[in-house]
Amino acid sequence: MNVKYHVRLSDDERSMLEALIKQEKPIIAQHKKRHAQILLAIDENHSPLTHEQAAKAFNVKPLTICRLRQRLAEEGLEVAINSKHSRHGGKRKMDGELEAHLIALTCSAPPKGNARWTLNLLRDKMIELEYIDEISRSTIHESLKKTNLSLGRKKNGVFPRKKAPTL
Fold first, then answer.
1. Above 60 in pLDDT, residue 5?
2. Residue 64 and residue 51: Cα distance in Å, rounded?
3. What is the pTM of this model?
4. Angle CA(89)–CA(125)–CA(99) in degrees, nearest 5?
């Protein structure tokens, strides 16, 4: 297999990884320990294993080894050890301030002619009020789901409760 990213650890990096592996289980997450073991095993300065050999030895897929090599080369040793997944995704659109605007908008009265807010209405209103340039319905849905403000639920504060009739 043609290797695009090479792992060549310095003596300091090797000793740091070896110390990390020797730490007790409650102190360190298992994926960190496994990543350190894999990096030591595929280090080209000390009799490296191939992708397939390392994958078989550590019971992971060869693609996992490839991604770990790539993460080490592109993002550094700390990221390669600490992260379960690479953080190549785009910047988050919904920060705390924008979520606060969304919640306030959701809890307000819907536009005239509508019984309640929909995801499309919320998206359009947030763009109209220039809170954000563009945003998807799914981003709004995920934010409302995270804050427990589902548009279809009656007990979330968006819809006022009707008083029970007195007898």
1. yes
2. 9
3. 0.50
4. 45
